[in-house]
Write a structure and sequence with these properties.
- It is a single chain.
- By secondary structure, the chain is an alpha+beta fold.
- It has one domain.
- Helices cover about 15% and strands about 25% of the residues.
- It contains two helices and three strands; from the N terminus they run E-H-E-E-H.
- Strands 1-3-2 form a three-stranded antiparallel beta sheet, with no helix packed on it.
- The chain is flat.
- The chain starts with a strand and ends with a helix.
- The mean pLDDT is about 90.
């Protein structure tokens, strides 16, 4: 699974959607350097994923 993050305040992400990336929602906006589980003013990003194998969903749903 490949993932990317798009800032919806700056970009629409249409190029990813046109390439069949799957929109799975928004981040909480905590940021990369958050060690205390607090929001530091980072804007929430849209998360898009792209399956690299045909059965990616089934693999993710399998118990370890």
């Amino acid at each position: 699974m490949a993932e990317t993050f798009v800032d919806p305040t700056r970009f629409t992400g249409h190029c990813y959607r046109a390439a069949h990336w799957i929109d799975v929602g928004l981040t909480t906006g905590r940021g990369r350097e958050d060690r205390h589980h607090e929001r530091h003013g980072a804007s929430p990003k849209r998360v898009l994923v792209y399956p690299l194998v045909p059965d990616a969903r089934q693999r993710l749903l399998q118990a370890p």
